[in-house]
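INTERNAL AUDIT FORM
Audit reference: QA-55
Scope: verify that the stored structure record matches its stored sequence.
Auditor: D.O.
Record contents follow.
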Amino acid sequence: MVRAAVLPAVGAPLEITEIDLPDPGPGQVRVRLAAAGVCHSDLSLTNGTMRVPVPAVLGHEGAGTVVAVGEGVTHVSPGAPVVLNWAPSCGTCHACALGEVWLCANALNGAADVYAHRACDGSDLHPGLNVAAFAEETVVSAACVLPLPGGIPLTDAALLGCAVLTGYGAVHHSARVREGETVAVFGVGGVGLATLQAARIAGATKIVAVDVSPEKEELARAAGATDYVVSSENTAREIRARTGKQGVDVAVECVGRAVTIRTAWESTRRGGRTTVVGIGGKDQQVTFNALELFHWGRTLSGCVYGNSDPAKDLPVLAEHVRAGRLDLGALVTERIALDGIPAAFENMVAGKGGRALVVF
């Protein structure tokens, strides 16, 4: 038996309880978690913004050590350090055939599986976003396990599973920031901090961080921000003033709110690119008029999982970490136990801190 954080129903509080995990079957891997990041997507699952079958063990950003492998698994073996990939591509759907593996139609099929049971009554449990990382151990599809490149601390490596792949990919794959360009990042949480570091790595000359909290300025500047703006109704005007009245070349929205998306758009120069990373609810409606779409010539695009291919991007990120260009620890503002996850959700809602990391 292992301890895990279970979401019994949408809108219900998490329950820290013991669960029974089976031995890994064919094509499966059992992993002992070293750490798991508390991501806004986990919060979105608890409140119904995103939906998966429940009851479920949440957590999708994790790293750990292989305990056992099932028949047919050859790319990892017991004792190997690994990063969990919550959105494995099937390789056969239309998106995968186009090389757009981040849009795989079958990536979340595993969330509907029954992967474990409550120890108290034997009731079924689903694996959240495929990997159920809010647990001391988990059993996942082999496709959800990526070998961790050497030289990366195992605990901090959990952040590579979502926040860093998303933030780095938003800059390098979606917005394709070029050296010398200017960037604005809206939202200084875990993904926003990763995005700031990625913009610095890309060679952006001015990097404006925007957040509702004045207390996050130090975090943002440590991650690479050259400027910091406390969000207000004048945010777009202030960003344009700091960029020769033009606006930034690229704005990355990491919040998922209609007003923030609209502000990011208005902060972007004519012909610039606005990338939306934040996951908003269906009630968050963003409106544009036809004339402004024509006149400003901006590109507005969504960005799923950083438009990343984790298998290809993980070695690249590892090299940035080893070279000192990417600081994983700088994203973490709190290290907690499993029972600290509800408080981490509260801090997220209140706009406090960066990434909370569950350390086992």
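Auditor finding: record pair retrieved intact. The first strand starts at residue 2 and ends at 7.
Action required: none
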